[in-house]
Write a structure and sequence with these properties.
The protein has 242 residues and is of the alpha+beta class. Among the domains are: 45 residues, no CATH class; 80 residues, no CATH class. It starts with 15 loop residues before the first strand and ends in a 5-residue tail after the last helix.
Length: 242
């Protein structure tokens, strides 16, 4: 399965809580190692290898963004109020990404284009190095990346493509007349794009939910975009013929 949620796109859904005690209670359930569900679909990519990760809560608070004593592009500093959220304790490692690549046959932009940016400390800038990839992030003749190190360099093309859905929805949201209307719009945007990522026609999915509203209420987990067709087939087999 794959899920698209506002405002962050990630392998595991970003969850927002209005109260810190709710965040801590939910975090207790999620801080154990977890894995991605089998047959995760992202466009043409299918992932069956698990990725263990640990989620930790970040409480809501007020932070200062920028640095008045820093370079020109870092000031003026300004305050920002951040809502509570959950985040993986560690970045994706080289070993975890290798399992994904093996199963999905995925190629990064660096592998497709033949080069990647490497930080040159002497020049104080990023320079393109031929042959640099996530396996050899500093160049093909340099030491291979260690399995327990964060994987780099990576591209976020898939994420940026998915975020365009949210950008378009934000423009449309200007015409919502109430906060509740905007909330409903958010839900439908996330739902429709989740259907798209799982190769499901969103209209047919919503019609199926309406026709089987009672079953959906009893077992909502069995009626997700990535598994509802199996559940629907079982429900139709069990229905008396007319």
């Amino acid at each position: 399965m794959h899920c698209f949620c506002l405002p962050v796109v990630c392998v595991s859904a970003w969850i927002k809580f209005q109260r810190n005690d709710s965040l801590r209670a939910r975090a207790v359930q999620l801080t154990q190692p977890r894995t991605t569900a089998p047959n995760t679909v992202l466009g043409s990519i299918r992932v069956t290898q698990p990725r263990n990760s640990e989620i930790v809560p970040i409480p809501a608070g007020r932070v200062e963004i920028g640095d008045n004593a820093g370079p020109p592009d870092e000031h003026p500093a300004f305050p920002y109020t951040l809502h509570s959220f959950l985040i993986d304790r560690t970045p994706v490692t080289v070993a975890q990404f290798a399992a994904f690549v093996k199963d999905a046959h995925y190629k990064t932009d660096a592998e497709r284009y033949g080069s990647a940016g490497v930080l040159n400390k002497e020049q104080g800038a990023w320079v393109a190095v031929r042959g640099a990839t996530w396996r050899h992030p500093t160049g093909p003749k340099e030491r291979a990346a260690l399995g327990n190190h964060p994987v780099a360099p990576l591209d976020n093309t898939l994420v940026e493509r998915a975020l365009k859905k949210a950008i378009l929805h934000r423009k449309n949201a200007l015409y919502f007349k109430t906060e509740n209307g905007a909330r409903v719009g958010d839900l439908f945007m996330s739902l429709i794009h989740t259907c798209e990522l799982n190769g499901v026609a969103s209209l047919g999915y919503l019609i199926a939910l309406q026709k089987h509203a009672r079953e959906v209420a009893e077992q909502p987990a069995a009626w997700m975009p990535w598994n509802y067709r199996d559940t629907l087939a079982q429900a139709e087999q069990g229905s008396p013929s007319v």
